[in-house]
Design a protein that fits this description.
Layout: E1 5-10, H1 25-39, E2 44-49, H2 57-62, H3 67-91, E3 96-100, E4 109-110, H4 113-121, E5 125-129, H5 139-149, E6 154-159, E7 164-165, E8 177-178, E9 180-182, H6 183-189, H7 196-204, E10 209-213, H8 219-224, E11 231-234
Parallel strand pairs: 1-2, 1-6, 2-5, 3-4, 3-5, 6-10, 9-11
Antiparallel strand pairs: 7-8, 10-11
Helix pairs in contact: 1-3, 5-7
């Protein structure tokens, strides 16, 4: 395998599958099976998952709610997804640990960097919930921060699109895909991959990002084997 330790970033929306809200059990099972496949190859896996299928902080603002309040609600939504993914992985007989940035003793361990690293070294899949534990930060920022803290080799951003394009491929069929692009070129071309805070963290810490289509079974394993899947972003 090309990478020894990875951080896999999944969006909450991706868990909806064909639904308009919540969690599609078939999608959850598919993700768990793909993660098990690379786990069985000895890859150390950490995961950050969003909460957009349940609640987004932006919704709160639109309804007149305080941004901080809405962001904390969004963090709780990520915990629901994290627990669902944990259950799906354990049904595939993959040992997991759920670590939360907000203390929730009954359902998760508190996030402690050394503990997270130790779990990875012991071959457990580590799921980071509740974002960074702070409002005004996205789960992309949480993914970048946790990846740096655990010294991951790469962030794998699993999406519904098979990489980064010159334009939105769903809006323009003539958009062309990049196999590789630098952080600086992403800035210059105004391409949207992660929010700027998350993206800058990766650039400054020389942490590559691979954007790929997680919805196609087998793609995750191909990325780990070094095949040309998705788009690599690096310095």
């Amino acid at each position: 395998m090309k990478y020894k330790r990875i951080l896999l970033k999944l969006s909450g929306e991706s868990l909806m599958g064909e639904k308009s809200f919540g969690i599609d059990n078939n999608k959850l099972k598919s993700y768990a099976q793909q993660i098990k496949e690379i786990h069985d190859q000895g890859v150390e896996i950490a995961i950050v998952i969003g909460g957009g299928n349940i609640f987004r902080g932006v919704q709160a603002e639109e309804g007149g709610m305080d941004r901080t309040h809405g962001d904390y609600m969004g963090m709780l939504a990520t915990m629901i997804n994290a627990m669902a993914l944990q259950a799906a992985l354990e049904s595939e007989e993959v040992q997991t640990r759920l670590l939360s940035a907000i203390e929730m003793k009954a359902i998760a361990e508190p996030f402690i960097r050394r503990r997270a690293v130790r779990h990875l070294e012991k071959g457990r899949v580590v799921i980071f919930g509740a974002g960074t534990g702070n409002p005004y930060f996205t789960t992309d920022s949480a993914a970048s921060l946790r990846a740096i803290e655990i010294e991951a080799d790469v962030i794998l951003k699993g999406t519904r699109v098979d990489g980064i394009y010159t334009e939105d491929p769903e809006k323009n069929s003539n958009a062309t895909k990049y196999d590789m692009i630098t952080f600086d070129d992403v800035y210059k071309r105004g391409l949207s991959i992660m929010d700027l805070t998350a993206f800058t963290l990766c650039k400054e810490n020389n942490l590559p990002i691979i954007v790929f289509d997680m919805d196609t079974p087998g793609n995750l394993k191909k990325v780990l084997q070094g095949e040309q899947v998705g788009t690599l972003v690096r310095n």
